[in-house]
Amino acid sequence: MRNPLLKSKTKAFNFRKPGLILAFLALSLIPSLIKAQSAFGPGHLVYYRVGDGTTTPLTSAAFPINFVEMDTAGSVIQTVSVPTSTLTADGTAGSECELTLSADGTTLVFAGYTATPGTTGVNSNAAASILHGIGFVSQAGTVSVATTFANTPTSSGAYEGNNTRGGYFNGTGIWATGNDNKNTTSGSGLHYTTTTNGSSSGGGIELNPYTTGLVNTTGCGIFKDQLYFCSTKTSPPGVWTYPVIPAPTTAQTALPTQVAATVAATSIWKAILLNTGNTNSSAANGAPDVMYVSDEFRISKFYWNGTTWVSAGYEHHNVYGFAASMNSSGQIDLYCVLNEGAAGNAIYKYTDYSSRTANINTTSPVSASLDSTLLVPASSYYLYGGIEWAPSQTSAIAASAYSSTIASSGNITAGNYGDITIPSGVTATLTGNIYINGTLTVQSGGTLKCGNFFVFSPQGNFGTFNLQSGATLETKDDSGVTNYTATGSIQCFSRFYNPGANYVYDGSVAQFTGNALPSSVASLTVNNSNGLTLSAPVSVTNALTLTSGIVTLGNNKLTIASAASISGASASNYIATNGTGTLEMTAGTSGASFPVGVTDYNPLKVATSTSTSTVDVGVSNSITNSQNVALSNHAVNRTWSVTLQSTSTVTVTPQWNNSTDLAGAAFATSYSSVASRTSSTNWTLSQSAGAATVVSGTLYDRASGSIAMAGSTAYQVGVLDSTSGYNTTPFVSGNLVVERVGDGVSGTLTSAAYGVSFLEFTTSPATVTSQSAYTIATAPQFQYYIRLL
């Protein structure tokens, strides 16, 4: 089922728990609410816009701040204005206008100055009255000032006479970025504060003092307990990381770790780290595996190889802020604020069509022209800076929900969560939709029952679902187990489904296995009277349980491994081979029953002369003669397909319903015989005509005689009676054909309608001179008419 919130798959910053902390309650801890506007819509983008709409060109004076909400096609939804009495921004410094989404998806975080519009040189103004502020915008569109930094050239202030760029909020504290080169001996590009109620933070805590050289920083976010930020400390600039657990309480002097460097550039703006759902163990635990970095010349791409970040090329675009999402094809869409020089800034959408480890490629197919979509054109009246996904959550993460291991079986109620672990022996049942900011892990022996509810990630953050080997997932969703798309019970940004896990489909409407069900699973359980259809081939290594419903293969193969079993097969629970897909199992001398059918249950038992042999079986609702013309009577109207991987002599036992599965009305169960052939060849009876066995009611079966089958050759198996004309060959030009009218049963023919058949004879001598040259047995049941071909 498609996400009812029409959520697009996106993520930018990952929430991780900062130890045992109290949750930030966005509305209760900010007493001075400034202005409430309409709530943001799910799946929308918000960009930071500076300007009053009348002044052009913009200058370095202070201008009003607005946040424009738009959909992913660029259509404007609303504009949220920041009152000029609170925070304003420099009209020319695009690098200052950073915009991030809080860890729990409730709040947009931005920076500005407590300067009135028109204040000249606002970012270089050293007036003590001009504070450097961090603002919040809630999901409801409420704007507030979270904290301010003093504009003083001492450790009691921050970013004095220089740029304040942005911040990130993880639920308890704010990390702020900017240029803090106060003097030759002090300053810090990163400041941390737990003041989030509108009061002044002074200078906060300096995380990387002047001695480290990291005095000029941009774009920060927290991923897997690490703070990532950009800095121009090195040439070229790079991305750095610093642990955030425990949260800092004093100034930090240790040099952070550089994780990546851009190609030659003097400025760097933002890094976005994503978990794209690859199979390495660190990614399964929620760690990022792809990183995009913007600087003044390009967007660079890096991927995590399990040990380090590896460069994966770059594209030439001067991008300030950007947001990312994963589309339904698993490709990364980048929504970028592009510096177009004198024309101003514009917003474009680019798509990286490359795989995770391949060089970035935003053209499809690769060509000289850039594959892009203009969403917002440049304007001399406005400066566009950061862009981010709109807040989608209305409540913060409760303290008890930051990280929890469910101790005993029970319910998971609707809400916003950090990490959840479901351990062995515990069954957790969703009773409402939940949002995962960290990782939801189902360990071996644990079970998650989704019911009719969903597991989401907050818009703009990435959450991870990790179903480990031996764990069980139960889903009622009609789309089944999915990836990338906003469908299925699990709609976290990153979804890891282990092939050693167990999958239960227990919906009340017809279900599909889904585009992300592993090609091999430990067990598959169908408990849906409306059935399950394979979306792709699948192999079961432990057990297929048919509790209720039909498994429809279409053109996909279902493989039951040699150590696996099928249980629960019946007239209402079987494998429907309605296309080219077959059921593959291992048969031996004791035989194996293949529970197949199309519109009803027509199982086939196969026993081989070898101890083990892999066999593919299907069945269709028709039977033809040797010329592939449908037989109209004297046959069971079913054809079983049998293919062995190795040559063997087999016996087969097909089953049919004598009241519904016959070709025409006449079938002599006492004269039935199992026959086989390869395609378009004559049927060969495996035994003399004999009586079929009553299984129960109108169900019959008939064990065949020995049939030699060559390996890797498709055979057809059918049930014929002793009088059926199942083998025919084309007429030969020049032969003699006798048309015969009659049914071979009635006595002297009358004017009633009778069946017609043809007898073919070779001509000898070559020229027919008289009818007397050919002897045809006469009988009152037939009349004959001679024809020459």
Strand content: 35-45%
Based on CA inertia axes, which overall geometry fits?
Answer: elongated
Biggest sheet features: 15 strands, mixed
Mean pLDDT: 84
Q: What are the low-pLDDT stretches, counting only 5+ consecutive residues below 50?
A: 2-36, 365-370, 765-779
Question: What is the SS-derived class?
Answer: mainly beta
| Total beta strand runs | 67
**Helix content range:** under 10%
Radius of gyration: 37 Å
Distance between the termini: 63 Å
What is the overall number of helices?
Answer: 1
Task: Describe it.
The chain is an all-beta fold and 789 residues long. The chain contains one helix and 67 strands. The strands form 14 sheets. The chain has a 15-stranded mixed β-sheet that branches. Strands 51, 53, 57, 61, 62 and 63 form a six-stranded antiparallel β-sheet that branches. A hairpin with a 2-residue loop joins β15 (217-223) and β16 (226-231). It is elongated. Residues 2-36, 365-370 and 765-779 have low confidence and may be disordered.
What distinguishing features does this structure have?
single chain, mainly beta, 15-stranded mixed β-sheet, disordered N terminus
